[in-house]
Design goal:
Layout: H1 6-14, H2 20-27, E1 32-33, E2 35-41, E3 44-50, E4 52-57, E5 62-68, H3 74-77, E6 82-87, H4 93-100, E7 113-114, E8 120-121, E9 127-139, E10 142-154, E11 160-164, E12 167-171
Antiparallel strand pairs: 1-11, 2-3, 2-6, 4-5, 5-10, 6-9, 7-8, 9-10, 11-12
Length: about 170
């Protein structure tokens, strides 16, 4: 028979239920990196804006992304063995909106380069990380993809972009 620690029993008894709206309002105070994750699926590129990007480990080099389960782009990317995280620069609000939208060719008119793993590198980004997927699992209303960094680089972009209090902000 398992036991529950006194601290856990105390927390369970006193913790009121947390609504998603309340949680969203509190988390608005935490700035988040704004990235576009790209992959090559079959013979075409795919991509989506991801605001939940995290460094998991330096040794081994692991990162994670969280993708909303309602994403229309994720199903075609989910089974890719690799993806590239494009860290947006401070002046790329339009690119952020383009890859957050559904139902259009997000890559139309963009001059693309390929990462060493063969995924799209977007023009003007602040940095990039080429990743090999280790694991994908569903957590709550998101999918979590854990990936090992296989290559990375920075560019000459002067700023990057964060999402804070419901707005995009350029930071030096």
């Amino acid at each position: 028979m398992g036991t529950t620690s006194p601290a856990r029993r105390h927390a369970d008894m006193e913790a009121p239920p947390v609504s998603s709206g309340t949680l969203r309002n509190v988390l608005r105070e935490v700035p988040t990196a704004v990235t576009v994750v790209t992959a090559t699926t079959g013979d075409r590129p795919a991509g989506l804006t991801v605001g939940s990007f995290v460094s998991v480990s330096l040794d081994p080099p692991l990162i994670g992304i969280f993708v909303d389960e309602k994403s229309s782009s994720w199903p075609e990317m989910r089974n890719s063995a690799t993806f590239t995280v494009n860290v947006l620069s401070g002046d790329q609000q339009e690119l952020c909106a383009r890859f957050a939208a559904s139902g259009r060719d997000k890559f139309a008119g963009l001059p693309l380069q390929k990462s060493p793993l063969g995924n799209p590198l977007l023009p003007g980004i602040a940095a990039w990380l080429d990743c090999r997927v280790v694991e994908v699992r569903k957590l709550g209303d998101h999918h979590f993809a854990l990936a090992r960094v296989a290559g990375l680089g920075t560019t000459a972009a002067a700023t990057s972009i964060v999402f804070h209090r419901g707005t995009l902000h350029a930071i030096p």
